[in-house]
Amino acid sequence: MLINLITNARDAMDKKKELGATRGKSTHHQGVPERDRVTVTVSDTGTGIAETIRGRIFDPFFTTKEVGKGTGLGLAISYGIVTDLNGTIDFESKEAWVPRFA
Prior knowledge:
The chain is an alpha+beta fold and 102 residues long. The chain has two helices and two strands, in the order αββα. The chain has a two-stranded antiparallel sheet with strand order 1-2.
């Protein structure tokens, strides 16, 4: 699951590649004792996720990669593993402004 998240973050980056991952105790999760909680955060310097597709990123076979570059299963598998273990998985994204020239 972590490999899927890290690979996805790596693939999202263009030039300035900075990838981060942290693990620590969760501050709050309803009904789960503190000793049984872990929070993992993966971050990258990619261009962000467009608002128009944010509701689909955990869907099986959904990908924004070129044909032959991705299966669209990495985030779907990660979502399935985490939720099967009664965990939660979520994301935050800010779209970066990318100049486009015609």
